[in-house]
Amino acid sequence: MIIDFEGEPARSLTERRRKRSPLRDVAGMLRSFAYAVSAARLLRGVEPPGGWEERAREHFLEGYLEAVDHSLLPSGQEQINRLLTVFELEKAVYELRYELDNRPDWVQIPVAGIQRLIEETAPA
Fold first, then answer.
1. What pTM value is reported for the model?
2. d(Cα 69, Cα 64) in Å, to the nearest integer?
3. How far is residue 24's CA from residue 47's CA, in Å, rounded to a whole number?
4. Using CA atoms, how far apart are residues 94 and 45, in angstroms rounded to an integer?
5. Which class for 24: exposed (0-12), middle (13-18), buried (19 or more C-beta within 10 A)?
């Protein structure tokens, strides 16, 4: 079941309607997979299948990139990945602020996302 498409409630309606890169929405969906895994643990005490988030991310991105008009995206997979990382980090920071204000018990979800993104982009 997919719910919650009203956008980010802390942003004004004008801001939410602004034309932006479609990868911003893709990054939001990728962050939602992390929330699905964590919510299963926090709300139900259920451990999701191993690797579920990674597979969901991979399949979603694969399907999206097959279907999208590529003139809307940066050229090349490396540039797409870079922009996705920026948008995911932006979303995770937004989530951190939201969770601190509304659900402090859930702060670990965006913090883990921020840590993952930093580790993935750190020089080797």
1. 0.83
2. 10
3. 29
4. 26
5. middle
Sequential DSSP letters for 43-78: HH--PPPTTHHHHHHHHHHHHHHHHS-GGGS-SSHH
Q: Which long-range CB contacts under 8 A does 25-29 form with residues at least 24 apart?
A: 26/60, 26/61, 26/64, 26/84, 26/87, 27/84, 27/87, 27/88, 27/90, 27/91, 28/87, 28/91, 29/60
Render pLDDT for 62-115 as a digit per residue (tens, 0 to 9). 999 999 988 888 889 999 999 999 999 999 999 999 999 999 999 999 999 999
Q: How many residues does the chain have?
A: 124
